[in-house]
Amino acid sequence: MKIDFNQVYLGLDRKTPMKEDGKELTLKDVAIGALLMPNQHDDFKKKMEKYKLYEKIMDCKTINVDLISEEIVLIKNLIGEIQPSIIVGQTVKMLGEDGVK
């Protein structure tokens, strides 16, 4: 599935873009932050899986990044563990409802 990681998160009014450090907060920013967030329960294999997905997103030369469903679910789960509901809800809409329980 092709995902546009330049999608911008909106504030509580659902109109004004959220900002971080003076720039609009994008799916790419949030996903990369979640992928690189340390987790003491991650073994070597999991850390490398997350790192390779980080590289895939960062190295993509087009607007859309082609991800498989397992990668999308991983990103959703990682964001869901560390972000508030307003970010999680928008992330699910940006990435699709698949894999959401």
Alpha plus pi helix count: 4
- Count of separate structural domains: 1
Order of strands in the sheet with the most strands?
Answer: 1-4
What is the N-to-C succession of helices and strands?
Answer: EEEHHEHH
Strand content of the residues, in percent?
A: 5-15%
Kindly state the mean pLDDT as a whole number?
94
Sequence stretches where pLDDT stays below 50 over 5 or more residues: none
Structure description:
The chain has one domain (2-95). It has helices at 27-36, 44-59, 69-82, 85-95; strands at residues 2-4, 19-20, 23-24, 64-66. A two-stranded antiparallel sheet has the order 1-4. The mean pLDDT is 94. Helices cover 50% and strands 10% of the residues. It has four helices and four strands; from the N terminus they run E-E-E-H-H-E-H-H. The chain is mainly alpha-helical and 101 residues long.
List the SSEs and their pairings.
Elements: E1 2-4, E2 19-20, E3 23-24, H1 27-36, H2 44-59, E4 64-66, H3 69-82, H4 85-95
Helix pairs in contact: 1-2, 1-3, 3-4
Descriptive tags:
single chain, 4 helices, 10% strand, 101 residues, mainly alpha, two-stranded antiparallel ribbon
What's the short story on this structure?
The protein has 101 residues and is mainly α. Strand 2 (19-20) and strand 3 (23-24) form a beta hairpin.
